[in-house]
Amino acid sequence: MRKRLLMMAILIAAIIGFAGIKVHAAEEQLTAEEMNSAGNADMGINYTVTWEEDVDASVNKISLGEKGLLTITASKVTSESLRMLLDMNVAVYDANGKFVWECRDEEENSNPSFYVGLNAGTYYVVVEPSYASYAEGKTTTYSFGFTANQYIEAEKNNTKETATPIKTDVTYTGYLGSGFSVTDRLDDGYDVYKVKLVKGRKYRLVTTGMQGTTLCNWGAKSLDVDDIFQTNSPGKDYVASYTGDHYICVWNYGGEQFKYTIQMRTMTPSKTSITSLSGGKKSITVKWKKVTCSGYEIQYADNAKMKKAVTKTIKKSGTTKLTVKKLKAKKKYYVRVRAYKTINGKKYYSGWSKIKSVKTKK
Prior knowledge:
mainly beta; 27 strands; disordered N terminus; 7% helix; Jelly Rolls; single chain
């Protein structure tokens, strides 16, 4: 596919000589004239534009009431002189006309769709073919669709400063891929996310849908985006070295747009704590705080260092009480509790709660 595109680019260059031909390249800022000329666009309606010498781009103004996925579908036109479908380009700008995102479809698909996650707000969407002068007299039909989704990447998120914030243990959907010829300064080559992790807890980045040479790595707050490539990889357990924001970077050198998912999964459950500890007749009863987990371990011993401690296992996360019988009368016991998660047959433990003591009765 890459070789075909390269040969096609060389062929086109030879035909047109790069002279007097408008080749698509998104601008960093729309002009006031372009913004004022934009027509208000609604979802689910088909719009048409006929490409002429003075009409080589269609500017549309849309308003989104909430975060979600914007879909743009636009038909391509065929150039008889080049004997090929012309690539279709779509770019998105914010309410001030500042560049947000662009994508190019270079496949032999006559009616491609483009997907971009956006926060609530007003946007300008520019639709135009590559080598626009070869599209003169041709008509493109395009439309917009929108699906509200709080768990989707929000463009522009290609730096740490513009990273999409995500929560742990929630699956987020992203779209990546900017086309073979889109320039590095504006392409959708990076998707960056930030997630708050807790020091000492174990996490694992889980991904699906990664394609080709895509890299998905993550690192600490002190790293630049480029350095994140050299740190942690998906599918491996990681113990957070500090409490605070960590960054995930999904990177692709180019290619057609594709869908993927990421989730920063918490492997170790939150710590629990003892809420009540009482002594009975040769027995003790311990109660603890419920957390999200697979179960709990309760340890008790007759010394504060928990030497030769006895461990009891509770296999239900909803059970938060245990009575231990057949103990020595009028004896002081020390107790602590921890939670665990079972993932793919392996147990992941939280830290122990603070040790508390209680004395049994006669």
